[in-house]
Design brief:
49% of the residues lie in helices and 22% in strands. The protein is α+β, with helices and mostly antiparallel strands. It has a domain of 163 residues. The strands form three sheets. A five-stranded antiparallel sheet has the order 3-6-1-13-8. Strand 9 and strand 10 form a beta hairpin. Helix 11 packs across helix 13. The chain is elongated and about 120 Å long. 26% of the residues are buried.
Length: 516
């Protein structure tokens, strides 16, 4: 296997691993690809009020199911002097408050903060099989009306889903017939209508159940749960609006309870009632994804930058920008043909520009380097050895930086005081390198390499300060693998650079003139 084939295999592996991890974090862990992506977080507060009779009190309250399409960020339970426990039940979860003795008005609270997941996941799995529907008991009059109504609906339906929808629409008709009036009764409650639909479907041998849910609307108080009917059709549960017959869960609708188990049971109290209050807050999707996956102890999160202390995380925000600067240097030198004073110098200048801002950083850089070159030219006349000369240049650079800071402080120029962010060792080495270059190749080469370094640093600065790139490099450090793969590919490039086009263009023009 030759070296080029090994390189291509390595590039494909790095690129595939990097892109694969990015897609996994986006689609599975829920990390957004853009920094401004926001998500609505709903906070629902359930308030249970009742009057205790002086006896032992047990309050049992149905809790919303934890489904893949809804992510709970926080659950809180509160009630003064009550014991609390969360109990499983056949229909889902239930909260239970208890107290040895209580009398008078009592209140218990349940608060839930949640948001909807981006990926669509069915909240009920196919394994949630229904029991055989129990035939309801009707008297002869109501049974005749039910049978007649079902026969009418059946004749208009081609399948079970249409039958259910047609039944709901018929029961909610503005001009009900005699059978509908008899079944619905006058001023039938919502719970009664729900149970009637379930009973009528049971006569057809169709399994159905009640679903209670809450419409999520901002700044709403004293809300109550709405009833839906869930029907088992084709090995899956379909949710039907019991008023309109529409299929599917409405937008911003939280399913609170499935099945006919009671929503609230109070033992030792009377006049119990429950009300819901809702408020919406907007949060960063990235922060929600980090919090959720850290709480779940996801493997990729447990061994990620997010597991580090905050101080180290802040340091990595800058460190992870360096590969972007390195890629810019590779492109500028290998593809564009810009000559720079070393490889790392433009990257470090770009880091300093991030701290000092662009304009003030360029002015400080030019001032320090030009002053250092003048002093270095004087030191060269003293015939010092290399080690002593570079050490002297370091001290001179420190003196220049200190002088700029003191003078700028006196004149109130805050931007110039950030000169300390420039790496003094690199500045000293740059001054020494440019001085040697001046002596060997003249001032033109110094201007070319110095200007190339500054130009490359400015371009790297523009990329490294881009908000989207900053976000992606920190939250998707797997991009370093993609970055590395690109640099390895560019490292094989031996063709013409863009800066050479002008030279060859002049040569082509001379050849054309010679041919004439």
């Amino acid at each position: 296997m030759n070296a080029k084939l090994r390189l291509y295999i390595l590039v494909i592996l790095l690129m595939g691993l990097g892109i694969g991890l990015i897609l996994y974090k986006h689609y599975v862990l829920g990390f957004p690809l853009l920094p401004d992506h926001k998500k609505s977080v709903w906070t629902v507060e359930a308030k249970v009020d009742f009057t205790a009779r002086g006896d032992p009190v047990i309050v049992s309250f149905a809790l919303p199911p934890q489904t893949p399409d809804i992510i709970f960020t926080q659950e809180e339970f509160a009630s003064p002097d009550y014991g609390f426990s969360e109990l499983p039940s056949t229909a889902g979860r239930r909260a239970q408050w208890s107290k040895r003795t209580a009398s008078g008005p009592q209140t218990a609270y349940y608060r839930l903060s949640m948001y909807e997941a981006d990926h669509n996941v069915a909240s009920q799995q196919a394994s949630d099989l229904p029991p055989e529907p129990e035939k309801p008991e009707f008297d002869e009059l109501h049974k005749t009306a039910a049978t007649t109504l079902l026969e009418q609906v059946r004749n208009k339906s081609a399948n079970t889903e249409i039958l259910v929808r047609e039944l709901i629409v018929t029961l909610n008709s503005n001009t009900p017939n005699q059978n509908q009036n008899l079944l619905l009764k006058e001023q039938a409650t919502e719970d009664y209508k729900t149970q009637l639909i379930i009973d009528l479907l049971a006569l057809e041998g169709i399994s159905a159940r009640i679903v209670r849910g809450l419409y999520l609307q901002n700044n709403r108080r004293r809300q109550s749960l709405s009833n839906f009917v869930e029907v088992y059709i084709g090995n899956e549960w379909l949710l039907f609006n019991q008023t309109t017959g529409k299929t599917g869960k409405p937008k911003n609708f939280l399913v609170w309870q499935r099945g006919d188990e009671s929503l609230l049971d109070v033992v030792g109290g009377k006049d119990s009632q429950i009300s819901f209050s809702i408020i919406k807050n907007v949060h960063s999707t990235r922060n929600l994804a980090v919090k959720d996956n850290l709480s779940k102890q996801a493997t990729l999160m447990d061994f990620s930058i997010y597991s580090l202390p905050i101080e180290q995380q802040n340091a990595f925000k800058v460190i992870l920008l360096l590969p972007i600067g390195a890629l810019i240097v590779v492109i500028m030198r290998l593809l564009i043909g810009i000559r720079t004073s070393g490889t790392f110098m433009p990257i470090l200048i770009a880091l300093a520009l991030i701290q000092t801002t662009l304009i003030s950083g360029i002015i400080i850089f030019l001032l320090v380097v030009s002053t250092g070159l003048l002093i270095r030219s004087y030191l060269s006349r003293l015939n010092l050895l290399f080690v002593a000369r570079i050490s002297a240049v370091i001290i001179v650079v420190i003196i220049i930086m200190a002088g700029i800071s003191i003078v700028s402080n006196k004149f109130g120029i805050d931007q110039a005081m950030t000169v300390t962010f420039f790496p003094m060792i690199i500045l000293s080495w740059t001054i020494e390198r440019m001085s040697v270059l001046w002596e060997e190749d003249g001032p033109r080469e110094v201007l070319i390499q110095g200007g190339g370094s500054l130009l490359t640093a400015i371009i790297a600065y523009l990329f490294m300060t881009n908000r989207t790139i900053e976000y992606l490099t920190f939250n998707f450090p797997e991009l370093m693998l993609v970055n590395l793969a690109l640099i390895l590919v560019l490292g094989q490039y031996t063709g013409y650079r863009l800066s050479e086009l002008y030279r060859f263009h002049s040569l082509e023009r001379r050849n054309v003139t010679h041919q004439r």
